[in-house]
Backbone:
């Protein structure tokens, strides 16, 4: 394989994808001159345009819906599905044929992510697609667009970084890496989005970041994308006289983002219209959502406007007679968005959870509490001990009830409305003042839409030793559930112990030690383990057994599965094995079973059919 | 161009019609005579036409732009409707849809710049050899450049055009398809 010429960063987002790249032959100054790939895509039947973002939507048209000539792409492909702008537009009108939010499904342990389950509400005859396959199609589209633009530098030979939410579990990380490999991306690394945002900020500062942060700073990255809210803490420490960045904590997977906000606002306005006797159909609600988004940005940016008119166009050709006029007021935006998603809460607040209904939830596990400030409070409180192991970070005062960040970096299109970023700063600084800590400052100058893709491309450059690297390794310690050896008591499930197999902070390319515990596995029969992760237990080592734990400490992830092939063994035979964890160069976790004798290794599957 | 030799059946009517034409048409008879003597028949040289100075713009791009303005800005719906019957408030509401959508189309597909950077109302000087296509002279147009005048409109120039690429055989005449909900 020839030497990579470019470092490519791919932001595989819930609602939009982007590809950014830097020329690796250029020096550090030039690395700032990064580019974004214009992605050719269908914007109408038979019409192809280049856009900097590729909407992450997949549309599966009816055979009679579009002529095959109308689906032709510049690189000659004529797929039977549509990806990008046209998919989004068509899908809004025919949702039963639309695959959206594939990324959220990729991290949903409750479903089989390789099974053709999307679109979820499609009738029988619509061909379905798995969350993994949808991701592969977006990546393939980006690959083809790149190759079409750079015939001399095929994508498979370039250095690639794909971003994922920091809160992705090992299975979702591995599935993302697998999607990339399937799509022909060969040198792939996965990078957490909040880190990518910080890399982009570092790069954009052109070296000035060293003046903007000091040793002892703890940077809170608040990344609110279209579908997810991602929180990370990154500490600035000194090592050998140089500034070093350490990602010390990541938040839970919160399915809550800008799309929810647009929808919330549209429903407020639709409710107002309904009160006046005008009922909107789903098509009109969509037009209204679109109108609310631009109106909301105006209201949150220009403080001298109190109302912005919104017009819901008629569906038929009678535009003037058939359109519905209404308006969005500042007060509605404040009440719905600012108070609804960013309410002033105490630092001790926790997200509220409603009791789940008895029926099994088949849809996406959306966040039950829409208040991002409460999720933030819970995150900072849980991570109060995150800096304990680091030297150079001032120890928290004894009265501190949460971890005190000193700087905040925002990312995501939601924060184009400056008022929302200000509100978070207000809330956070309120908490800090209450504990007599200095106010946190805001790190300015990030491109909210493209920072993740840019940071990812810059990371490829950094990996070659071109700039400061954020360290941190895995953001969780991982455990497998082991049944305690206790006498069976009828009606009571044997208590489960959690055995640590991967400690916190494993770096890429490293392997954990072998735990002392062995498991007896039956040859030829799949064995399932319960699997847990902890984002707070930093001290646990491989082999640590937990008999009990607080609900906040350990989170149960999807089950994991191991099958010992029967070759060379008698089916039914019991083989003692140990489980060893390793983190690949690509940044994904691997668990393998190692028998007492012999050089065989069996891979543990994270993604298990539910 | 090579032609197949006529068959016997085809030659009979040819011979008969040629016979009558030789009798009736002296010029034709002279041509046949020259052919029989082995001299190539004289061709009437087409009169030299003046080079085409006018060209017709292809309709494809214009239709495509109309389609985009309709898709994003409901432009055709708006123009085709009779505004006389509606109040200014109704027209104004619809105009917002048209304005926002058409503006988006313009921004996405064209890069527009003013032709002149000066503020409207400013005094400007046009030197000898200025581009008459980009600056239109009005009013007291006499004398020789340099011309002194007031900028009444700054002008617009499209510095970039980015229209969507179309699939071969795509029917641009359909500006907006009819919609049928099932």
Residues:
């Amino acid at each position: 394989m020839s030497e990579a010429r470019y470092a490519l960063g791919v932001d595989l987002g819930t609602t939009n994808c982007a590809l950014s790249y830097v020329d690796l032959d250029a020096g550090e100054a030039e690395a700032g001159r990064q580019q974004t790939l214009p992605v050719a895509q269908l914007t109408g039947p038979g019409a192809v345009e280049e856009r900097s973002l590729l909407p992450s939507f997949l549309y599966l048209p009816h055979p009679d819906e579009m002529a095959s000539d109308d689906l032709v792409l510049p690189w000659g492909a004529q797929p039977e599905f549509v990806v990008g702008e046209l998919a989004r537009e068509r899908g809004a009108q025919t949702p039963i044929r639309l695959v959206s939010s594939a990324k959220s499904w990729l991290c949903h342990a409750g479903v089989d992510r390789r099974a053709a389950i999307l679109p979820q509400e499609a009738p029988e005859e619509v061909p379905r697609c798995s969350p993994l396959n949808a991701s592969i199609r977006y990546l393939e589209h980006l690959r083809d667009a790149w190759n079409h633009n750079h015939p001399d530098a095929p994508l498979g030979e370039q250095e690639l970084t794909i971003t994922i939410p920091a809160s992705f579990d090992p299975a979702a990380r591995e599935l993302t890496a697998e999607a990339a490999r399937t799509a022909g991306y060969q040198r792939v690394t996965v990078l957490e989005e909040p880190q990518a945002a910080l890399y982009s900020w570092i790069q954009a500062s052109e070296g000035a970041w060293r003046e903007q942060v000091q040793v002892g700073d703890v940077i809170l990255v608040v990344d609110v994308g279209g579908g997810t809210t991602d929180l990370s803490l990154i500490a600035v420490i000194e090592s050998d006289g140089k500034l070093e960045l350490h990602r010390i904590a990541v938040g839970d997977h919160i399915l809550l983002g800008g799309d929810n906000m647009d929808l919330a606002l549209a429903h407020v306005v639709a409710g107002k219209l309904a009160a006046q006797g005008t009922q909107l159909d789903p098509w009109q609600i969509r037009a209204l959502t679109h109108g609310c988004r631009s109106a909301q940005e105006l209201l949150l940016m220009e403080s001298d406007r109190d109302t912005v008119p919104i017009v819901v166009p008629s569906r038929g050709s009678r535009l003037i007679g058939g359109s519905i006029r209404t308006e969005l007021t500042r007060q509605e935006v404040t009440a719905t968005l600012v108070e609804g998603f960013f309410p002033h809460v105490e630092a001790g607040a926790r997200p509220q959870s409603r009791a789940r209904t008895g029926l099994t939830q088949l849809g996406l596990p959306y966040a039950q509490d829409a208040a991002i400030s409460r999720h933030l409070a819970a995150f900072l409180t849980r991570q109060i001990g995150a800096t304990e192991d680091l030297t150079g970070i001032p120890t928290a005062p004894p009265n501190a009830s949460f971890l005190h960040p000193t700087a905040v970096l925002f990312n995501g299109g939601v924060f184009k409305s400056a008022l929302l970023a200000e509100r978070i700063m207000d809330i956070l600084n309120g908490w800090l003042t209450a504990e007599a800590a200095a106010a946190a400052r805001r790190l300015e100058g990030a491109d909210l839409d493209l920072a993740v893709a840019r940071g990812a491309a810059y990371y490829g450059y950094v990996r070659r030793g071109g700039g400061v690297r954020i360290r941190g390794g895995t953001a969780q310690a991982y455990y497998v559930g082991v049944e305690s050896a206790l006498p069976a008591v009828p009606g009571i499930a044997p208590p489960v112990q959690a055995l640590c197999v991967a400690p916190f902070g494993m770096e890429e390319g490293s392997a954990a030690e072998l735990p002392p515990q062995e498991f007896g596995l039956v040859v030829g029969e799949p064995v399932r383990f319960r699997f847990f992760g902890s984002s707070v237990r930093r001290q646990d080592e491989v082999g640590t057994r937990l008999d009990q734990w607080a609900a906040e400490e350990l989170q149960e992830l999807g089950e994991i599965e191991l099958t010992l092939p029967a070759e060379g063994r008698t089916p039914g035979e019991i083989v003692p094995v140990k489980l060893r964890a390793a983190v690949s160069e690509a940044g994904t976790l691997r668990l393998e079973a190692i028998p007492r004798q012999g050089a065989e290794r069996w891979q543990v599957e994270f993604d298990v059919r539910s | 161009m090579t032609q197949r030799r006529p068959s016997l059946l085809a030659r009979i009517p040819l011979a008969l019609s040629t016979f009558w034409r030789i009798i009736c048409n002296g010029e034709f008879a002279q041509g046949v005579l020259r052919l029989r003597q082995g001299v190539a028949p004289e061709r009437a040289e087409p009169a030299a036409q003046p080079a085409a100075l006018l060209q017709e713009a292809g309709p494809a791009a214009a239709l495509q732009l109309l389609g985009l303005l309709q898709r994003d800005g409901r432009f055709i719906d708006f123009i085709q409707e009779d505004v006389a019957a509606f109040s200014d408030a109704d027209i104004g509401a619809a105009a917002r849809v048209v304005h926002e959508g058409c503006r988006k189309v313009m921004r996405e597909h064209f890069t527009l710049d003013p032709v002149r950077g000066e503020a409207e109302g400013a005094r400007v000087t046009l030197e000898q050899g200025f581009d008459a296509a980009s600056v239109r002279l009005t009013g007291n147009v006499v004398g020789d450049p340099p011309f002194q005048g007031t900028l009444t409109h700054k002008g617009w120039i499209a510095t970039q055009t980015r229209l969507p690429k179309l699939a071969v055989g795509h029917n641009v005449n359909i500006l907006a398809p009819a919609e049928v909900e099932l």
Q: What stands out?
A: The interface with chain B takes residues 40, 43-50, 69-70, 72, 74, 294, 309, 311, 313, 315, 317-321, 323, 325 of chain A (CB under 8 Å). The radius of gyration of chain A is 25 Å.
